[in-house]
Each structure stands twice: as C-alpha cells, then as structure tokens.
Amino acid sequence: MDVRLSPEQVALRDSVVQVVAYLAAKTVADLDDSERTAKLDAAVTAAGWRELRTATDDGRPWSSAVEAALVAEELARGLGDTAFIGPTLAAELRRLAGAPSASAPETVALSPDLRALDAATVAVDAAGATVALVVDGSSLASAPLDTSPVIIDLTRPSAAIGRTRTALGDLSHDDLARWTALGLALTSADLVGAMRGAVALTQAYAIERRQYGASIGSFQAVQHLLADAHVAAEGSRSVALHAAWAVDALAPGDAVAAGAVAKAYCARAARSVCETAVQVHGGIGNTWECLAHVYLRRALLSTDILGGVGPNLERVLAHEGVADGLR
Amino acid sequence: MDFGDSSAEAEFRARLRAWLETNNPGLPASSTDDDYWRGQAAWHQSLYDGGFFGLSWSKAIGGHELPTVYDVILDEELSAAGTPPRPSLGYLVQGILEHGNDDIQRRFLPGIVNGRDRWCQGFSEPDAGSDLASLRTRADRDGDDYVIAGHKVWTSYSDDADWCLVLARTDHDVPVHKGISAFALPMRQPGVEQRPLRMINGITKEFGEVIFDGARVPAANMIGEPGEGWPLAMTVVSHEREPGELGYVARYKKIVKELTQQVQRNPVAYNTEQRRDLAWAIVEAEMLRLHVCRRLSDRLDGIVHGPEGSVDKLLMTSTEQAVGHAAVSIGGSAHDGGDDTWLKVYLYSRAQSVMGGTSQIQRNLVARRILRLPA
What we know:
The complex is a heterodimer. By secondary structure, chain A is α+β, with helices and mostly antiparallel strands. Chain A has helices at 7-23, 34-47, 65-77, 85-97, 173-208, 220-249, 252-280, 282-285, 292-304, 309-319; strands at 106-110, 122-123, 131-136, 139-144, 159-160, 166-170, 210-211, 214-215. Helix content of chain A is 55%, strand content 9%. The radius of gyration of chain A is 19 Å and the shape is globular. The two termini of chain A are 37 Å apart. Chain B is built from 12 helices and 8 strands. A 4-stranded mixed β-sheet of chain B has the order 1-4-5-8. In chain B, strands 2-3-7-6 form a 4-stranded antiparallel β-sheet, with no helix packed on it. In chain B, a hairpin with a 2-residue loop joins strand 2 (138-142) and strand 3 (145-152). In chain B, helix 10 packs antiparallel against helix 12 (359-370). Chain B is globular and about 70 Å long. Chain B starts with 6 loop residues before the first helix and ends in a 5-residue tail after the last helix. The mean pLDDT of chain B is 93. Classes of the chains: A alpha+beta, B alpha+beta. At the A-B interface, helix 5, strand 8, helix 6, helix 7 and helix 10 of A face helix 8, helix 9, helix 10 and helix 12 of B.
C-alpha cells in the first residue's frame, strides 16, 4: 500500500492546475466571456483529458480512473467551465460496450432527477456536445441533443434529449456496475475540488474583509466555520481518492461500494462547505456576483449525478447485506 | 497510487490472520468494561511476543522497522478478527524518541514497547486543562533527585501504571511555557496517591487522578533538557491526535461490524432513522481508515505531521461520535435492564471531542496554523 500520487500523476495534476489558472473564470462576469471559454475548451481538447477512458487496442482504458479523478478535481477547484465528466462517462460506456470511439463531442443522459441511467431525458455536462449516450436496460444508444441549454450549474449546462435512438451495443450487469463506480468516483472528485475552491475563496475573503476594525478571519466564530470546512474537504479527499482507485482495482460490486461511501460523504460535506462559503461572505455571498454560489451550484449538480446522500447510503447498506436498505 | 497489498504486505497479512485465529483474547470492547483493562496488559504482551506490535519502530527498541502503512494492515485485521485494538501508546514512544537522550531511550523504550512496563501520562491538572502551560505541579531539586508535588487529573491508566511521564515546573522565574520539565517517575513509591475516576459510562479503570506529595524522581530521569517539557508535551499531544498512531480505526470497525450483524439478524426491527445512523457509522469508519492510509503513506516520504494532526483528530472525533450515535440508536439504552454495552459505547464517545485537546482547540489550530487566519 502506498497511496501517494506517482510522479506522472503529480505532473498531470499540475498541468490541469496550470490550464485552469490561466483560462478558467476568475469572476462571475468571466463566465460570459465566450472567447475565454473557447480557449479553455480548446486547451482541454488538445490535452486529450476527455479521452482518458477511451479504449486502447486491448479494450482497456488509456489511463486509470485515478488520472480522470485528478482532472475532475482540479477543474472543479478552479471552476473550469468546460465539459469533462459527461464526455468521460460517455467514453467509458462506449469502451465497456465495445462500441467505436465517438466521432463528435458527446456526453451521457440520465433520468430527470439524474440518479440513474434508466429513463433518460437529461443530458448533463453538455457543453459542446451534439449527442448524448443513453442506456435502456442493457442497450447502449445515442440520442440527439436539444440545442437550448438548461443552466443550473453556471459552469456546466444540461440539455434535453430528442426521441431518436441509434443503437451502439450492449452492456452487461458488471459493465454497468463498473460505469456506476466511475461516475461516483468522478462526481466525488468534482465535489472535493469544489470544496477546496470554496474554502480557498472564503479564506481569502475572511482575511480581507474588515468589520469592527479587524479582519473577520480573526473572529473565532468565523475561524471555526472555516476550520470545519477544511476538515470536511480533507476527509472527502481521502474517500474520493480511494473510490477512484477502486474503479479499476476492485471487483465491480466492491468498486460501487467504494464509490457510494465516497459520494455519500462528499455530498454531505460539499453542501455544508459551500453553504459556509456563502455564509462567511455575508450579504455579498447572497448576490449573483459572488463566486460562492457558483461553487454551491456546481456541487448541487455533481451531487445529483448518480445520487447524493440517500441513494448512496442505500448502496452502502446493500453492499453490507442489510435487507431493505434505508426502507 | 495503490491501496492494495504488495506481495510482502499480503504475506504479512496472511501471517497475522493465522496468528489471530489462536490468539484472540476475547476481551469486551475497550472503554466500556473494566474487564478490558484487566486483560489489556496481557493482550499487549501477546501481540508484541507474536511479532505484531511496534511495526514501524526501530529494532533497537523492539520494533520491526517496517513501513508505516503496515499499521493499517494491523488495524484492518484486528477489527476483522474482533480482537481489541493495538495498544495506543505511539505518542509516548514518539515523545521519548524525539526528546529523550540515548540513556533515557535505552532504559525506557523497550519496556514501553514490549508492554512489560505500564505507563501513564501526567499532564492535565484541575486548573490546567486546555491551558496546559499554566500547570502548577512543581519539581524541586534535592541532591540527585527531584521532589514532586502537585495534582494531576484525567490520567489514563494511572491505577495500572509503573511509570508516569510527568510534567512539572522546574523554573518559576521564566514565562510559563519555558519553566516546565518532563520526567519518567516511578509510580510505586510513597508520595504517589492514585484515585480512580468514574467516567460517565460507569467504568473506573481507564481514568484516574494522581496526587504527588514528596514523590522522588532521579534527575537522570529527566526527559530532555530542563525547560524542554513544553515542546515534549506538544510532540506527545500532536501524535496523540493522530488516528494512525492510536489504532482506533480497528475499534470503530469492530463496533460497526457488530452493529451491522445485529441489524442483519433481525432487519424488520430497525427503522429508517436507525438504518441511516448505521450507514453513516459505516461511511465514517471507512473514511477514517482511508484517511489513515493517506497519512501513513505520506510518512513514507518522512513527512512529520504538524497541525494536520488537528484535522485528523477532528475527523477521528466525528467518526467515533457517529459510531456512538449508531450504537445507542441500534443497540438502545437498556431501559429494560438488559445489556447496556451499546449505551456505554455511546457515552464514552462523548470524551473523544475533549481528550487529547478539545475540538474547540483543534479548530483554533486548524484556523491559525493551516488556514493562516489572523489572530
């Protein structure tokens, strides 16, 4: 056991950090700068990060889920408004079904509450995509995307999908479990990144903002809120890292359980941490111009993809052999 | 990045698992039953004699010089076998290793590690809890000895101890942090009075208070230089905050496993709230195991944790208290006069946010030392 990142993983993470630092939005107004967004998208495309889970000649992915999770975490930390989790999960579906690689940008579609692949109506993380992959039972197909985006997370639009289907292949029960494990690991990593970004934003504000003639970060009430947020993010990082490793290293059922532990923990933590970010920013934190709600909105989307606390506590209990889950 | 076993780790795990099959002392859960403490010394010695204690410490003091992550394997296998956790005294060893001279290390560390010498830690006093530096126990030089007078409290295992790592004031003319020295004091002598304290769950063997009135300790038993007591205390408490040092993951996993089995045996008896409490206990205990994997892996680089210990302490506390909530939720409070073990587990869990530095103090440390928020 040695859960330190390899030098190659550190290098990958550092390159994502660099791209995000240079090209991601620094203010809410920056989110409307389409020239900047296009540059970020081009940089991520050029780096090939969305293809980490496409198949090599022997059907295995180009890299492990740990690499994909590192990219997800750093994109979220810097509020990277470019597609990543959606295209990565689409590539994984194609790989598992033995379908050819995508010819155009695509993502995945989920149920209206985003908890499941079944009864898909909503394509998530759909920026730049023209197609979404849908799973009906064990059949993988593609569906066209409606062009008008739905924007809840200001960094990652969703879109409705059309009615036509083009069959692409079939997925086994184990394939779907493996895919679910990847989805839980990547959304957990995204939540960790959002938490770390929200803590850093709020830490800087608490030092800069003065009331009663002092920096508000000197007040113990504020310090304890931020300390709890930091601690929650650190615990989350440990479970999310394990969930990412588990995707390729454990049996499918155990990998899903590792993902469920991570997702339940990270979803609860992220809501609390992002709400703390809004709270410590005071009145400013409740305005559109403050980045705190951008983190909160990003966390809401990543929480809902494959379910937040409740569905994942159910998965945990099921894996432990407790009949009827939460009932 | 690998959470799995190397071949050497797998071999160690198999050997340990085989040993545990015939060496489980079958003690009740720690901290809920005085019988646990009656059998704890024998468990420590058995684990040591089996070759499974002090895994990462040097061979000179009885350790095995294995990588730090072997402690994770030990904790996992102990909880899977349902044995007690490993003895929690790494912090004492680390304090003496960092501050004691060769003579002190040679005389005391082997006995601590092999479990033949029992130790307690005389830090807190009635008027010096979180504000430890204000302690008033004094050590006055008399020939080759120091004479100790004062009152210690919250002294874990004091009734069983042969030795006490005691902090006492040796210099009254300097700022409070600078006048404290540390000693290895023999407990079995006149001038040492030990009184048990009854904790909120009723156990009496874990906690005590100690009155020193003319107890003598040789000057050669001073650990570190005169005035080095404060930095030594900080070394000890920072390690005392680390779940990887304490081995508590095994305790939480064992309790969670027993609670899960209880629900599995009769699932219809448990409602949504109880199931949610159980699920959170499972998640929290697993989080702590994985967090310890991360911290102990970091130590493979030789990283010594400073303020991060406060993060770990707060995570360990949330785990212990989530496990405590599940215990009382699923096990109940024994209002019918039945087995009250789960009630005791719950009540004991409240101490985790106080012992080794309160959660309030840990949050102060995280805010100031890690987040660098202003004073």
